[in-house]
Specification:
single chain; Four Helix Bundle (Hemerythrin (Met), subunit A); Rossmann fold; 4-stranded mixed sheet; 11 helices; 16 strands
Length: 333
């Protein structure tokens, strides 16, 4: 399994996801501002992964003696939609408030490392809970990348797929390419190929075609924030897939840790949607594909209303409607 992010004596080492699948390069962050840049520029991405990165970024800030509140506030504001980033930062902030003396730095580093290890175990638990929902002998459709690269390891949506395969189910995967950053075509396809799981890349506008043909057994996606009512923010295009799944009677599952639940947010209407640089739309790698000076919009996420969500899989079990009740029960509230 790929090492997405790792604390080392030299700094926080991360695989640079911008260059996959063609090159495996690594970035080492030695300061919290280098971590801020890595998160902003998508060296590391995926809600659980940037939650770990945020925690490790706080530890880097403590290590370099930077102002603690500035470190936390800057990291938490780097990408606004995924709640895991602020969750990881706030966990570190709460720990710091309990510490005094010379053990502050080692305790902060230990906590950041612990968050990483917990994330891997959480993803494995999500996989176990979700494997039973995957239809044997059918194709699983996924959107974006919710695998080891989007977490500290194993993955959420891809964790469900990996667990189903480990349980002996004969499945294959269709990966939406996920424009404009191509996380499905570049990252999901690469991960599953490494695992030997049969995978086919399709363009985003092909999903409905294959659903109507009856080829898709279920859809499994990750999430960046889940509101108290079960509305789900995920990579742009997820809403379209969910509507198509509902129309064609295909189960639509969301796999995410409890840290992705935002139970203080009543519905997805209030979720802030990150706007990404126009270049991600106007260019594919270095090739300019649009007319010069044409208008561009690039929202990074959309919100899928809960009525399109068949179930939400987390480390504590499977939530179904009404989500206002089931999510709180699984979160221990």
């Amino acid at each position: 399994m790929v090492e997405t992010i790792l604390w080392t004596d030299a700094g926080v080492v991360m695989i640079d996801q911008r260059y996959l699948p063609h090159k495996q390069e690594y970035v080492t962050c030695r300061t919290y501002l280098e971590m801020v840049d890595a998160i902003k520029t998508m060296v590391i991405r995926g809600a659980p992964a940037i939650g770990v990165a945020g925690a490790m970024g706080v530890a880097l800030g403590v290590q370099e003696g930077a102002d603690f509140d500035t470190v936390c506030d800057t990291l938490a504001a780097t990408r606004p939609t995924a709640v895991n980033l602020s969750w990881g930062v706030e966990r570190m902030r709460r720990l710091r408030a309990t510490l005094n003396g010379h053990d502050i730095l080692p305790r902060m580093i230990a906590e950041a490392k612990l968050i990483r290890e917990e994330d891997i175990a959480i993803c494995q638990a999500i996989g176990r809970h979700g494997a039973d929902l995957v239809v044997d002998g059918k194709t699983v459709l996924t959107h974006c990348n919710a695998g080891a690269l989007a977490t500290a390891g194993y993955g959420t949506a891809l964790g469900v797929i990996r667990a189903a395969v480990s349980a002996g189910k004969k499945i294959d995967v269709f990966a939406d390419e996920t424009r404009p950053f191509l996380q499905g075509a570049r990252l999901t396809a690469w991960e599953l190929q490494q695992d030997g799981i049969p995978t086919t890349v399709i363009t985003d506008n092909m999903a409905g075609y294959f659903m109507k043909k009856g080829q898709i057994g279920c859809v499994v996606v990750g999430a960046d924030r889940i509101a108290a009512n079960g509305d789900v923010a995920n990579k742009i295009g997820t809403y379209s897939v969910a509507v198509l799944a509902k129309e064609n009677g295909v189960p639509f599952y969301v796999a995410a840790p409890v840290s992705t639940f935002d139970l203080n947010m009543a519905s997805g209407d209030k979720i802030e949607i990150e706007q990404r640089p126009h270049r991600e739309v106007t260019h594919v790698f270095d090739a300019h594909i649009t007319p010069v000076d044409i208008g561009i919009q690039n929202p990074a996420f959309d919100v899928t209303p809960n009525r399109y969500v068949t179930a939400i899989i987390c480390e504590n079990g499977v939530a179904r409607a009404p989500y206002e009740t089931s999510l709180r029960a699984l979160a221990g509230c």
